[in-house]
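Hi R.,

Here's the chain you asked about this morning:
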Amino acid sequence: RRYSRDLEKYNAAADIIMNESGIAGIDLYSFTKALGSDVFCDHVHFKEEIRTLQAAFIAGYLQSLK
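And here is the predicted structure, written out as tokens:
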């Protein structure tokens, strides 16, 4: 199983590495967390509608880089 406390540690480590390297990142974790608690179809995979929202979030970010 995956746990939120583990994800928060992994994301914190990734943020440090990305910031030290001067690389921009997409905060998909915070975006998804803001969608509420009913986002999984099992303990780790997101529901189809959540994946669609995540894809739009990523696409919007990438479009803004043009």
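One quick note: The helical segments are 4-21, 28-33, 48-64.

Cheers,
M.
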